[in-house]
Amino acid sequence: MSSTSTLSRVGVVAKPDLGDCGDLLDTLAAWLETRGLSVVFDEQSAQLAGPRHQRMPADLLVAAVDLIVLLGGDGTLLLTADRVAMAGARTPILGVNFGSLGFLTEVRLPELYDILESVLAGTARIDERAMLRVEILDGDRLVQDVCVLNDVVITRGALSRMTDLSVSVNDQFVARFKADGLIVATATGSTAYNLSAGGPIVHPGVDALVLTPIAPHTLTNRPVVIPVNSTVVIHPLPNADHQDVFVTFDGQVGHPLPPDHHVRVTRATQSLRLVRPTARSYYEVLREKLKWAER
Description:
The protein is α/β, with parallel strands linked by helices. The chain has helices spanning 22-33, 43-49, 58-64, 74-86, 112-121, 193-196, 282-290; strands at 9-14, 38-42, 54-56, 67-72, 93-97, 125-138, 141-148, 151-156, 163-169, 172-179, 181-186, 208-214, 224-227, 232-236, 245-249, 253-256, 261-276. The two termini are 40 Å apart.
């Protein structure tokens, strides 16, 4: 990572319901300021930190700073990562875990200042994580265009019948999936909804996507691992019940998918730059978060 000579402005983003964390945010801001860095909070976090701090809207902050220090859970990081990508920025994120699981926000609070010191020294470990561009199209007309880090999910509503989806990869027909839904996940997202649906864990260093049907009607419809640079196109079939079919982006935002629309998924030009602890391997994170070998 770049040394402190090119690091001048740090953004701080906190989980909105983090609670009484004003002292922590003030201490963090003071620590950064004593090292010659300016600090800016997103507007929600500034309400937790107090009135003296500089603030700006989150959508603008992600591209206006050289580093984002994020205090929260994976949901907060996903939302912030998607904002960074949509802004066309490459701002690295240092995620401090205040959530319940923390696959992405894996830095522990006692490690925060040591890792910040390594960032300032230019020796921090930075992982590049692939992201996806998801387009909703009505014929050739672009209806929606977003970036996601973990996954895009097409699923049925609470009262609808199973979905009926036609899936192609690079213009080659793959299968017709009759299922509760379909997950298209990155390697990073393989430990999210994909894992709960029976999909494989994919090391984030592997350039791959996973297509995972959710509760498929045909039990031989299994998850498929494909190259990350593939173009995946998903069409709801005309005889499916489209009244309550939804597309969900990173588990954060969902929208109805009309019967005449389709979904196109490609690798995004932006990738997430994630500051990680140097002493902890990905396998250690898996053991810790998934409680492997514990009874």
